[in-house]
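Researcher: Next entry in the queue.
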Amino acid sequence: MSQNSFKTIFFFLLSFFISYSHSDDLQQLELFKEEVLSEHENILKFWEKYTIDEDNGGFIGEIDSQLVKNPKADKGVILNARITWAFSAGYIHTKKKEYLNIASRAYNYLLEKFYNHENDGVYFMIDYKGNPTVTRNQVIAVAFVTYAFSEYYRATKDKEVLEYTLKLFNSLETYALDKEYNGYFDAFSEDWEKLDDMRMYEGDKDAKKTMNANFHIMVAYANIYRSYKENDKENDKIKNALKNLIEVLLDNVIDEKRGSCNLFFDEEWNVIKSDDNYGLDIEASWLIWDAAQVLGDKKIIDKVKPLVIKIVEHCLKYGYDYNDGGMMNEGNDKEGAVNTYKSWWVQAESVIAFFNAYQITNESKYLANSLLTWGFIKKYMIDYKYGEWYGTVSKDDHEPNMNESKIGPWKCPYHNSRMGLQIAERINSIISQVKK
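Model: Structure for this entry, 436 residues:
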């Protein structure tokens, strides 16, 4: 059967099922919510059970695919920030004290070992004993710590947490913001001096500005504004920074004609060509919508709305595998997907993005995509033997790459746990509206 034929039959059957009765629709959403919340609990239990470093503090830096720990592995700030965010968000949703305990452990470790108190920045990597090994301020890492701190503040309402959140916000505004061409540079030294080489890791593109860093600063700013609207003194500053950054992304990063994000730029926002990253695109589609909603500016909302759907459609056209519901990694408009592996985090973000498109348009096909990708995750991404999710699986035979770490500098409980909470919150919102 051809892919187009499969798509036609699938959407006909699922659209018929979704529209069959109002009662069936709500039951389906309730089941979806129950399943993702159950998996959310499984994920956080895994991290609570296997990752705490009892000998050196914080969390183990690396665990392989079969749960063999590397107790002397370096520890990454992005991993630790994402642990802080995940358990803070988990506590906000469930009020489970054990989640708050882990969130507090993660926050305190970030503050003690990763936070540069002299310069109000963050170290990118430390050794297993907590000594800095990569001291540069990688801006995406600063953004993730800011995001994590703001979520921990939402969980605790601790004023000290808010103070550190705002210190990082002010560092980004003081040092990383490009006062001439707007947007944020990608990397600085530990004392916020500009660097010649902006790369996070070997093989990365050396670009002055990136979509990834600027988008995640937006995410952090939206979360600060979401949790801090009641404070009049800082309110306008945060709001203006958020609005400015959304406009920067609309003007420079999102290719409105193609419905995709350009990824790498020079100082003046000239594009450095690369293949599309479908994971970053699909994640961006719902994150910029969320940020626009938090900001509450109608003109920006009206401008963002059609772009959200255009990005989703572009990913569906070039990166989505209708045969199984998985989103592939990278590609271009001429060749389609050229990196056809299916990564754990891309699937999680796709589930949210499709559901978000369904909420915006009320078109059942997007709910169908969300459910299909969730089915893919259940069948191929969840590791039922060792726990958590595989890092990647291959396109057609769905074999997991067992050489990838289960836990590492980028493999974290963030994308997949956030998926569970996002879907549950969105379904709750739909059901509450229906019942009014």
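Model: The radius of gyration is 21 Å.
Researcher: Noted, moving on.
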